[in-house]
Amino acid sequence: MTSDHRDEKTCNSKQRRDSSRYSVLCFEQVERLYNFMEQEIAIHGLGGCPPVRLTLKDWVQRVRTRLEADGVPVRDVRLNGGGASYIIGMDPYHTYNDLDLLFGVDLSSRDTVDIIRRAVLECLHSFLIEQQRDADEKTEETSSETEQDAQAKRPLPQQLQMVEAYVSKQARIEHADRWFLLSLGSQDGLTVELKFVDHMRRQFEFTVDSFQIILDSLITFYKVQPSSSSISERFYPTVVAEAASGCFEEAFGHLRRREICTRCPEQIRGGGLLKYCKLLVDGYLPAQGLDVPHLEKYMCSRFFIDFPDARQQRVKIQSYLAAHFPPADAQLRTLYLQILADVVCNSTVCLMQQERRSALYLISELLSQTYFEAEAAAAAAAAAAATSTGVALEPFNSADWVIDQVFYGTQLFPSVSCLGSIAGTVYTTTSAGCSTTTPPLVTACQLTASE
């Protein structure tokens, strides 16, 4: 076989592999995506800031327009993670805890990250200003302001500092990978994560969350269609999705059958351990043929390499609990921590005995904390219900106290004296048995245990 034939065969096999990564969404999936982008979401800030209400449709278009106006070209925009799985799986019971948006950009210049961060904050500030104007019932003069005039008014630096209260997390990676993460929203509400990617070797943890929906065709559709019209089975955009795991059909099968499958978990930051336990809580099972002990061993090894001390482990686990489990759902939190403890107990071959005990003690401590918080919440709810129904407990009157028992002896071996119903007689219970004696006059000093 000549070299030309070998090159042609290699090229064809590569094209087949690339084509297996992509799939065109059907009308039902596009319709669900269209409604998903039109749905209003709220981004909550810290310190009592009012929530910013917007739609993903407006948010994606505004961020992309602002970036390109500031000299940052955008290759494509993608919906990633749980949101994409929600669209593709068509499962009405599938839930997502955050919205992941990927913007393909060039981050070779260090100044680009600062430009991106400022552009995102300016877009968030513009939504906040529009929301305040609508709430204040703007005057006719304000409503006649053109969109170009509004875009020309850039927020002041002190105003951007106020908007930073909506930024919950940001990270910048510049080694083998190159990307920038900006997370908006508090952990108590929905989190919108904007990831600006130059290149990233690993973009998924498990096959069920490896889907990426390319939104460029939908954004173009928004620009050309009238605002009052909607899509129909005869008129809708062609939307393409990609499975970052490599095979769309395989990943889609795992999603529909609720199966857990991944490859090279040691390449994932944190090993995918916390996500793996979350999938088990959600009812997912390991795919057929998956070496579960081998998988769990590598996940635990990478987790304790990335988070070596107890403080980092506590912060990571607590932040994951806050982002994926509501505080009121103590039962799911408890189940999650129990599954995590079982996996750590059986798969931590990389840890010394003391480190392993420390990790298990941390999880048991979080379990106790979850239990006590649930008990406190239940008690508060019961008290509130009693107050609302008019049921109240009478205060305890100390004047009604009656001496029931008198303790004698040492702290280690006390003897109990029980006051009987016959006046002047005390039935004393000791290790020798029960005897009847005539008691002395009982005073306050005699109620304490004598040494």
TrEMBL record:
GO molecular function, one term: poly(A) RNA polymerase activity
Example GO biological process: mRNA stabilization
The keyword Metal-binding is annotated on this UniProt entry: no
Domain of life assignment: Eukaryota
EC annotation from Swiss-Prot or TrEMBL: 2.7.7.19
Cited SMART domains: DUF1693 (SM01153)
Stretches that traverse the bilayer: none
Pfam family of the protein (one): NTP_transf_7
Catalysed reactions, as listed in the record: RNA(n) + ATP = RNA(n)-3'-adenine ribonucleotide + diphosphate
Entry-linked InterPro entries: TET5
UniProt keyword list: Transferase
Similarity comment: Belongs to the TENT family.
Protein name: polynucleotide adenylyltransferase
Organism: Macrostomum lignano
Organism ancestry: Eukaryota, Metazoa, Spiralia, Lophotrochozoa, Platyhelminthes
